[in-house]
């Protein structure tokens, strides 16, 4: 069994805590056991799990794994602390708020022989899985992915990083991309912002990614993907699975800890994550 600590007890941290207390039986996640949680707030026991200090989490011999669920701006520091302490790390996306720091952290994990896993449950959703199946063999002509949602706090980072799940969708669907231009409109007094990024596929087909955030905006993905023979304007429903998204992600992380994921899959995932972070950096520079 691998002792685990959850760092940060927001929405994602509470889900991680719950999943660690009841992992999927006979799965790779079943080899993880919760030893405590870390929070900047002083909290009572959570579902029977005790709060511990960061110092304790970094030094205890019975803790080998850290789940980083803090604000985006703190991810890099916490990942580095736990890697330096010899712990495997699972972190909610985005891993960091810059491409260069992500490369540095991955090099550190490799140097120490540790697993560094960035969560991407958006790739596990039924609508995405079905969409990916639906476009197999189709030739893209142009496309738009427009995401709307409520206002974000400053510690979420620049929108190309806080919204990297949508960028990951585009890269996973259409391959590596190039940023041609980007813009950001902000009305801080209204807590409103709209980022627009123009991208090209390797086949020189245009894609537009829009992140729009503000009070009262519903959390919705609007798509318009035009292929040679069909245009997709709504996400497919997909088949709901009995295992939740965070548990699916935890099982994948557990398989990595058991060295049960092929090397080529690990490399492809690393390449995709770093490519998306590099694109996010470029979008920030151009906006």
TrEMBL record:
Pfam families: Biliv-reduc_cat (PF09166), GFO_IDH_MocA (PF01408)
Gfo/Idh/MocA-like oxidoreductase N-terminal domain: residues covered: 5-120
Residue ranges occupied by any Biliverdin reductase catalytic domain in the UniProt entry: 128-238
GO biological process, any: heme catabolic process
Molecular function GO labels: biliverdin reductase [NAD(P)H] activity; nucleotide binding; zinc ion binding
Name of this chain's protein: Biliverdin reductase A
Biological source species: Triplophysa tibetana
């Amino acid at each position: 069994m691998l002792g685990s600590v959850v760092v940060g007890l927001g929405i994602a941290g509470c889900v991680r805590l719950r999943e660690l207390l009841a992992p999927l039986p006979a799965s790779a996640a079943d080899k993880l056991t919760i030893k405590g949680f870390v929070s900047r707030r002083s909290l009572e026991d959570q579902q029977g799990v005790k709060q511990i200090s960061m110092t304790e989490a970094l030094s205890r011999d019975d803790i080998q794994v850290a789940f980083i669920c803090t604000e985006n701006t703190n991810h890099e520091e916490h990942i580095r602390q736990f890697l330096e302490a010899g712990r495997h790390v699972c972190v909610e996306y985005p891993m960091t708020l810059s491409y260069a720091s992500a490369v540095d952290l991955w090099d550190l994990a490799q140097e120490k022989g540790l697993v560094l896993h960035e969560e991407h449950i958006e790739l596990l959703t039924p609508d995405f899985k079905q969409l990916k199946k639906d476009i197999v063999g189709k030739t893209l002509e142009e496309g738009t992915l427009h995401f709307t949602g409520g206002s974000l706090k400053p510690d979420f980072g620049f929108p190309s990083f806080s919204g990297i799940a949508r960028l990951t969708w585009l890269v996973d669907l259409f391959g590596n991309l190039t940023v041609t231009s980007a813009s950001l409109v902000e009305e801080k007094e209204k807590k409103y912002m709209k980022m627009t990024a123009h991208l090209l596929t390797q086949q020189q087909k245009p894609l537009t990614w829009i992140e729009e955030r503000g009070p009262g905006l519903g959390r919705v993905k609007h798509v318009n993907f035009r292929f040679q023979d069909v245009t997709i304007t709504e996400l497919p429903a997909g088949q709901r699975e009995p295992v939740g998204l965070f548990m699916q992600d935890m099982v994948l992380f557990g398989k990595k800890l058991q060295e049960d994921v092929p090397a080529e899959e690990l490399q492809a995932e690393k390449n995709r994550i770093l490519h998306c972070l590099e694109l996010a950096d470029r979008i920030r520079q151009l906006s």
